[in-house]
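Troubleshooting log. The previous run stalled partway through. Resubmitting the same two chains, unchanged.
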Amino acid sequence: MPGFTPLFFSEVDVPRKTPFLISAKKSLPLLLMTLPGMAYLVINNYIPMLGVIIAFKKIDVSKGILASPWIGLSNFKFLFSTPDAWLMTRNTLLYNLAFLVIGTVFAIGLAIMMNEIATRFFAKYFQGMFLLPNLISMVVVSYLVFAFLNADTGLFPRSIFPHLKIEDINFYTSPGYWPFILLVVYLWKNTGYAAIIYLATIAGIDKTLYEAARLDGASKWGQIRYITLPLLKPTIIILMLFSIGRMMYSDFGLFYQVTMNSGALYSTTQTIDTYVFRGLMQLGNIGMASAAGVYQSLIGFILVLGANLLVRKINPDYALF
Amino acid sequence: MKSILSRDEKIFARTSAILLAIFALLSISPFILVVVSSISSTESLISNGYSFFPESLSLDSYAYMAAQGKIILRAYAVSLFVTIVGTLISLVITTMLAYPLSRKDFKFRNLFTFLVFFSLLFNGGVVPSYIMWTKVFEIKNTVWALIFPTYLMFGINVLLVKSYFERVVPKDLIEAAQIDGAGELTIFTKVMIPLSTPVITTVGMFTALAYWNDWINGLYYINDPALYGVQQLLIRILNNIAFLRSGAAASTVGNVVISLPGESIRMALAVIGILPILVIFPLLQKYLVRGIAIGAVKG
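Second attempt completed without errors. Output:
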């Protein structure tokens, strides 16, 4: 089977015994080439990492960040004394869990079915139709959802519910429906993409395995159960590892734009990302927003390391680093 | 050799085909609803709402947009500029960083590779980024706010191009070029880039899609309508349909005043927003599928 070498550090470096100055001089043109990229990396990624200190300060705009006074963990204490902290953490984790479990089942199911399509023509068109939702922005998605759900002209409230004798529902003010709506939108947008990853692995499985199983009288279901699924395991584990590392993060567009930023829906749609945005841009509460951001980054980082450690214990070949 | 399928395998294949056809239809049904709604007449929208089967059709919304074309064309121009310029700069700095990192004899290879890799695992969050970009670089309400934050270089793309350079370009070729006296820049432009067009196409396409679809930079940094891209214009109009009127002085075609076909025009705008992707999608599908497969699991 294809080797799942650790992703980017697979090749062993041979130590070289070149004097420092000579090797440094030799590296100079290469070093210059890295400059724009490394400069951007420092600005875009590393300077903001230092910015986590903002969460431990009482930011006074007139003094600037460095001169603002330190206040220790006050921002965090305040954040966790509000019900928001629990709510946004619960929402973020539960949505991610649902997306991970249900999304994986759907993607594998779709991939196995797509693998059955013998005609290349249909395979290509089906694949295209499943992939299309992934290529459009969350803004366009929010238009599509609006077309289905809005109370004045939406397909469901105006065309379908009256026939079913269901009374008027204003979706944009009824938080109870949104876990289901957002799950459907997520599956619609992402399943085709994930299925392609699984399909690539399934296509790489040795066909003689299936031939042998059929000679032994294995049914189709038996072939899936005992050949396809076990051989998909490495891919499933790697993708789950990625997902667990992203457990504290949410698709901002899905929770902010698709819900039309509706305040009535916060109880089921507020995630850490939307909280940080609202804190920073709408409430101007830098302290709380940055504390929530640091909370997210830190737990997220621990989750990545933890998930990777776990995978390395089970099977080092599947680990990311 | 054609293998003989057993009965349950035949049933499975047929059921799969039928289910896939249904799912595929469901997958594109929202697009169909939007297109149909955009050409539904105002009367049928008022009486029935958005529908797959409207009572009567009308092209009013497109006529209105043609009359109000300026504000839409401008948004298109902004989005195109950002996408093209952003993607080009991104490709240059991404590949120029990936090449030295792919060279075993580059002194800072391990350190720099680690720095790129670590940026995938940890970040400082949006609050420090926002303060830095607005206070230090002062990019608020400039076109650069749509290009610089977040999207200009993705660490994962650097690592993808780097590993492609390592796996695909033979080391002998680089050494031969060095013996011929070629400098690093020459090797990069004459050897590495031409041999790596597949990965560069893929990375470039994902970057271009990210720029075209981005609205979050606009949300944070732009409130000047002159700098609205397509996505941001769409947000604005979803929230407030009247914004369309503010663009041109009068909504007239010839001497006829066209009233704002409020509900169908929203959907017509969504069509305008999806159109570029629908048009180039068939050309891109091959690269996309390949990119998704290599991007997630490098087998």
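Takeaways: Chain A touches chain B through 114 residues (CB under 8 Å). Chain A is about 70% helix and 0% strand.
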